Amino acid sequence: MGLTKTEIFTDQQNEISLFAKVFGHPARVAILQHLFKINSCVCGDLVNKIGLAQPTISQHLKELKHLGLIKGNVEGTSVCYCIHKENWTVMKTIMTEFLNQDLSKSQDCC
Longest Cα pair distance anywhere in the chain, in angstroms? Predict the structure, then answer.
């Protein structure tokens, strides 16, 4: 099995790759859209809204939380999730800079 060799890439390149990976699954995109729409949510609501099994939703929430795009607070027996707005802003800045690289180039290469 090969190694990913992430250490040969810059921190920014690795970070952009992680953001792209988290957006690479439609369930995570749907979760983020739902959290933006209602501004908070318990995991059970997501199961009903997204239509996936509880363990699957929990795994996607774990990925989003690990990257810092969402945060969760324990409220009784449930966890209430919401967008981590500061981290979301940082992610947008990093991704916008990456995606706008073409704007600074005035000539075509081919």
Answer: 60
| Whole-angstrom distance, CA of residue 41 vs CA of residue 31 | 10
Name every residue whose Cβ is closer than 8 Å to that of residue 64 and which is 6 or more positions away in sequence: 22, 28, 31, 32, 70
Residue whose C-alpha is closest to residue 36's, from 83, 93, 80: 83
Alpha carbon distance 107, 75 (integer Å): 55
Rg of the Cα atoms in the chain: 17
Token pair belonging to 25: 């699954």
Q: What is the pLDDT along the chain (110 residues), one digit of tens a residue?
A: 456 688 899 999 999 999 999 999 999 999 999 999 988 777 678 888 899 998 999 999 999 999 999 998 887 888 889 999 999 999 999 999 999 998 876 666 66
